[in-house]
Amino acid sequence: MATPHRTRPDQLTVEVVELIGEVVVRYHADYEEAAAGHALTGAQAKLLSLLSLGPLPMRKLARQLKCEPSNVTGIVDRLESRGLVERRPDPADRRVKVAAATDEGVRVAHDLREGLHFAREPLAALSAEERGTLRDLLRRMLDG
């Protein structure tokens, strides 16, 4: 079966994709640095950040982190040993366990967000209107 002929992206599209890639690289580097400041790995910091928004079942955490449930179990174990996360019965189904950030975990997640320089500094150069436009364009890209 023949594959359809695909046109090459134009130079502007290539440049936009490269810039998005550079933003992602810088964001991840900043996130890893902020996590290390709390003696966390990037994966631990991301999981803690998700849980700071509310308790989640382990399977849902695995889906959101795009990893195996067994990996999430190990991450939760390490965060639990530090008092940042706890396991609780799911109020909707007591047979299911959810992971939840402790008060200390929520505080650390907040500190992590505050410690992300890249997330603040480059955006500070944009006006509120420009940041709103960028947000809207990124949402359109992700929804499309």
TrEMBL record:
Domain of life assignment: Bacteria
Alphabetic keyword roster: DNA-binding, Transcription, Transcription regulation
SUPFAM superfamilies, alphabetized: Winged helix' DNA-binding domain
Key word Cell inner membrane present: no
Keyword Transmembrane belongs to the record: no
Span of domain HTH marR-type: 13-143
InterPro entries in alphabetical order: HTH_MarR-typ (IPR000835), MarR/SlyA-like (IPR039422), Tscrpt_reg_MarR-type_CS (IPR023187), WH-like_DNA-bd_sf (IPR036388), WH_DNA-bd_sf (IPR036390)
The name this protein goes by in its record: MarR family transcriptional regulator
Taxonomic source organism: Streptomyces pyxinicus
